[in-house]
Each structure stands twice: as C-alpha cells, then as structure tokens.
C-alpha cells in the first residue's frame, strides 16, 4: 500500500502543480493517444525529451518516479517479452526451434517498453502534482456535458469527494480495529490461507458496521443542511483556467507537430 | 416581550408504530427568540427524538411544530431548515467538505448561492467560531472541538434563528467542552441566536436560561436552572450547587437557594 | 503475582512504508508498581496511546525494553512471545464497542480466551462470569451484540477483555461518550476489579475528576516523554507546571485557583474534591 506511488500527492508549487487539473487530465489523455504516432527512434527520442522535461518541471525527484514504475515492472517486461517473441521481420538474430528473435522484434520490444514507461511517468506526474479533490473537481468539470444525457455527474462527484475525505478515517479505523483484535490474541498473516481469511472477519465486520452507521449520520447531517439530490447547487470550489493551461495544450499541439514531422513515412528526416 | 420562535403543541411520536410505547407523549412547550433552552433526560427519555422532530428528520404521529410562525411539514421543512440548524454528536460524521471552508460552504451550495455571497458568509461564520486561520485545513488535522466549531460555523453561515446542539459536546474532553460552551454563550449575545441544547451534562444545562427535563416522553420539570436544580436529587447538579449542598450538610449557613459559581465565589468572599 | 511494568529507556517510532515518523516515545523510563492504579495524562499527541500500545507489543520499541512482570519486550521481539504478553496485558481501547463483530455476545466474549488457547466450554463458563461482573443479565449472551444499547455494548466489549483474565488492565478513556451515570458505572466497575483482584490498572484519560476519584499515581506525558510520575495530590499542586503542559485540573482545584486569583485569599491546602474545598473554606472561616 505504501509502495504505491501512482496516486499519491506530493505538495509543491512547481509550474505543473499550478496547472488547472483539467489541462493536466486532457494533456495526459492526449499524450497517451499521441504516443501511437511514434514509429522510429527519432519520434521516441522526442517523446522521451518531452516526458523527462515534464517530470523535471514537476519538481519531484526522479527516484520517486522510478519507485512508481517498480510495482509494474514485471507486467511491463512480460509484455515486452511477448513483443520480442512474436514480432518478426528484418535480420534474424536467434533461430532456435519455435523461438525466433528478429530485429523488428527487438525494436518493437524496446518501443513498447518506452510507451509503457512513459505512460506511467506522465500519469504519475498528474497524480503527484494534483490533489485528489482537485482531480475529482477536474473530472467532474470535464464530464459536465454528460448531464444533458441525464448522467448524475454532480452526485458522483459528491460521492467521490466524500469518499476521499473519509479515506484517512477509514485507514485509522482499520488500524484501530486491527490493534483491538490483536490485543485479543488474533495473529495476522499467520497460518494457512483459510486461517488468514478467518482473521479478516473481525476486521471487516466492525468496519462495515461503522461505515453503515457513518453513512446514516452523514445522510442526516446533509439533509438538515439542506441537501436535496437532483436540485441545482452552486460550487464553492472553483477551477480557474489560466494562460498557462492554454500554453500546456499548445505544447501538446507542438508535440504532435513534431511527431508528425519526425515520423518514418517518407518525411524529410530519415 | 420576545415572541416565541418555536411552538410545540401536543407532539406525539412512536418509533415502532405497532407498539403502545410512545417515545414522546403529548409534549407541549414554547421557546422564545434569543432564549437558551437545555433539554435533559436519560437515554430513552425522548430528547434526541425531539431534536430530530424539530428539524424535520422525523415525522410525528400527531401534534404541531411551528417555527418562526410557520408550520413544519414536508413542504415547509426545506425552507425552515434555513432558519433552524442542528449540530450532531459525532464531529467526524457530519464533516462533509474536504477542508474547513468547503464544509462551511456546503449548506450555502445547497441553496445555490452565488460564489461571492458564499465567500463572504463563510468568512464571517469562521470568524464567529474562531476558526478563520484553519480555513484550508482538512479534518484529519483538527481536534474534536475544532470540528464541532466548524459544524457550528456551517449552520451559522445560513444565518438561522435557532441552533440545536444534539449532545454536541459529549465526545469532547472536559476542557474543549468548557471552551466551546463559552464560545456559544458569547455567540448568543452577539448574534441573538436561539439555542437548544440536548444534553445530560448538568454543567452544560446550567448555562441555559431554562431547562426542560424529559422523562419517558413527558416533560417532568421546566424552568430556570435555580428552579430545576433546587431539591433535585436524581441528577447530579452543577459544581457550585454541589459545593453549596456539601456546606449545607455540614451545617454551614449557606443561602438556601441554588447558586452559580460566580455567586458562590461572591458569597464565600463576603 | 508481581505484575510490575518497567519501561527501560524506551524510544519508539512508527514505520509507514519507506518513511519513519518522528519518535513517539522518547527515552521513557518508568516503573508502574504492581497493584497500583495509574492515570496517564497529557495533551493530545503527547504519546499516551503510544505508551499504551508499547505495553502489549503493538508498538515495538526501537531502543530500550519493556518488562511486564518477568516477560520482556525488546526491539526484535518475536510474535509467539508477544502473544503470551497480550494474554497478560488486557487492553481496552477507546470506544471498545466498535470492535464487536461476532453473531452473539457469547461468541464475542469467548473470542479472546479461545485465541489464547482456552477450550470452548471453559470459555463459555468464563463468559457467563464476566458478564455478571460487568453488570449485565445472562439473557444477553445469545443476542447479537449489534442489538444492544451503547452502554451495554461497551460493557460487552470490556467483558471480552476481562475474560482473557489479564494480570494488568490498561484502558483508554473507558467512559468516553457516555452519560454521567454510565460513566460512573463503568469507572466503578473498573475500580472494584482493581480493588478485588489487586489488578495493576493503567488509565489514559482527559478527565481529571476520574484521576482524582480513582487513581493513586499519575504519569504526565509531553511530546513523547514522561515529564512527571508522582502521587495524585503532588501532581496537582503545581498548577503552573500543569499549565505549561496544557493540562486540565479537577473542578474543585479550578474553583480554588479562580477564587484565590479573584480574592487574593489563599486556602490552606490543595483542594482536589468538593469535600477538600468545604474543609478548606471552613478552616479559614469563610463558610
């Protein structure tokens, strides 16, 4: 749990930190798509420069980003492995029965590795530099148009923000219940799988009960404070789009242009 | 002559509609504007039920509740919730916002208020409870007493006529309780707000102008503290009164009437 | 049976993944005598909860060691040994009713004893006994703990710890959130358990009335350190020190200090209870 860097917020005031969550979200999603324009080492180099610059601008240490990749490293290597084995073309390096390792295989393997790692890095930039509540506000704002299709975007946003607000409480309560049951002789993480599952009941049940209780009390409090689902509400939290956000999107366009220019399909540089 | 802000007439409520047991039986009373009324009683006396009925969280079987001249019912309750607000017992389970100011703004958002007006009211309300410097704090960094102050601010932002405290001090340590009580007394003077406190802490009840003592759904006693505590044996009276009775038992010539702490100090000093 | 608790130069911190928190206990050196009733007080964050958790190995010391009678908790303490210590240190956390989980009250009370190796039938017998001792009726045994009132749930939770038959009872604000009668009943229950069995009792509390009424010794904590460990009266006589540690005083003492400040008349002794006050005022002829 503690090793998961993706999803953690690191406070700071870098240029990236100060961007509106919407521009970050849009840029990140766009980046993931635009990655597929790359098909030669020049385009990948450009992408790497872009990624590393963004990471540098976030003000968070490279070591932290590396830690974010670590839990996913096996998944990434496995995919690379498959790519290498099953793509063929160009010079054959190894031909050993069913296993063929070719030039294209290696190249594609490297490309896939780059894509994966860059996606993780860029997404991590977003989550490290944006408070969870700001991310929620950003997503809510971007999904606003769906209200026209009767999707309860605002209700989801409220649910999400309340859930976020209670995460520290839940973590705290979990620890407290675990302590209480440990004091009564429960041993966690010992014994057979079945035995270990059984020790989870004295944790989950009290947490479940307390969550139900909390839900009821919250609902009462919300009602008394005038909350009616479906009614029009204003928002105190406001997102302000600034010049830097437009700049951010322009950078993405510049990146696209660069990639189109450098692509391997009969363009000038080859 | 202050006019009644709340009129309760023949209020009857039963949790279990099939049983004969009435949680509240034909309760009638009035509360004047600017008054501080404490409602005391044992668990099961009906005091919390009464609080919930007053804010429309429960519907009585029979009887009438009038707030600011308007009858409380399904249609009027949403409007009336701008005039009467409630702070609950658990400081965490009524804290909805991600930060202090978000939480205070919650009820204003529900009214679809403009941002500028919300900002002004939030600032004003935080000032009233001495929490202005905490406006960006998230709840995990606040003590129980601070969270309750935020809850009170959240209600004050509505500029209500009545503030109900449903055992709102019970989960706080004695010192926080005293501090909050002092703040409430000050608020009452500066804002001329009517306060109803549901409690079983006699020191809290002694701060009130009038005490309503409930037993098994009926009003057993009603009157100012000196009236209610005189000769009261079942409930342990406030501190100063206990001191007076102790001296009385030792045949000292203390006055034969209920005294507040101030009065006690004065008398001892002579 | 000597059930002394000795903290020998104990320092501890929490490890949260790759981050080590600052020290929550700082060179704590304290001896809690067998059979004593010690109150642990201190501002929020002073380290009281950490102090408690160190006593049954929920928080392992980084340096130093903790002796519970003849057993010792060291930084590298293994799990099996910790379990035997947990049998001897009965810990009641704040709002203990939130740990109830079993289908019936009986099963919940038996949970602890069974974990510690007590056979089921014997555990059930114990459950019956402790239930009576916490002042509840036997017919509750077959009920679901979730169907009980708040006060009853709390007693069931406490019964669940008493059923383990610990040698030391450690409690964190056992009366929190209860009405005055409920509080008194729980505190009296603990007090009688302490008296009848000579059980070493440690109580974390913010309520100074409880300290004065029930405890004989007080440990004052601040910023992870023990700053004072003395008899109840001695601790409350130095009110400037208490102010510095952000500590509350019993109502009677507060009244006395307020009176003395207002009138300039000093009372002959430190008054911690109403009776003390009455005595003092009579002595100076003001009452």
Write a structural description.
The complex is a heterotrimer of chains A (about 270), B (about 270) and C (about 290). Chain A has about 270 residues and is mainly α. Chain A has two domains: about 20-130 and about 240-260, no CATH class; about 155-225, no CATH class. Chain A is built from ten helices and two strands; from the N terminus they run ααααββαααααα. By secondary structure, chain B is of the alpha/beta class. Chain B has a domain at about 240-270. Helices cover about 35% and strands about 20% of the residues of chain B. Chain B contains ten helices and ten strands. Chain B has helices at about 45-55, 75-80, 100-110, 115-130, 145-155, 175-190, 200-205, 225-230, 240-250, 260-270, and strands spanning about 5-15, 25-30, 35-40, 60-65, 70, 85, 160-165, 195-200, 210-215, 220-225. In chain B, the strands form two sheets. A six-stranded mixed beta sheet of chain B has the order 6-7-8-3-9-10, with helices on both faces. In chain B, strands 2-1-4-5 form a four-stranded antiparallel beta sheet, with helices on one face. In chain B, helix 3 (about 100-110) crosses helix 4 (about 115-130) and helix 4 crosses helix 5. The longest helix of chain B is centred in the last third of the chain and has 18 residues, at about 175-190. By secondary structure, chain C is of the alpha/beta class. Chain C folds into two domains: about 5-245, Rossmann fold; about 250-285, no CATH class. Chain C is about 40% helix and about 20% strand. Chain C is built from eleven helices and twelve strands. In chain C, the strands form three sheets. Chain C has a six-stranded mixed beta sheet with strand order 8-9-10-5-11-12, sandwiched between helices. In chain C, strands 4-1-6-7 form a four-stranded antiparallel beta sheet. In chain C, strands 2-3 form a two-stranded antiparallel sheet. In chain C, helix 3 (about 105-115) runs parallel beside helix 5. The longest helix of chain C has 18 residues, at about 180-195. The mean pLDDT of chain C is about 90. The chains are: A mainly alpha (about 270), B alpha/beta (about 270), C alpha/beta (about 290). The interface between A and B is medium-sized, with 29 and 39 residues.
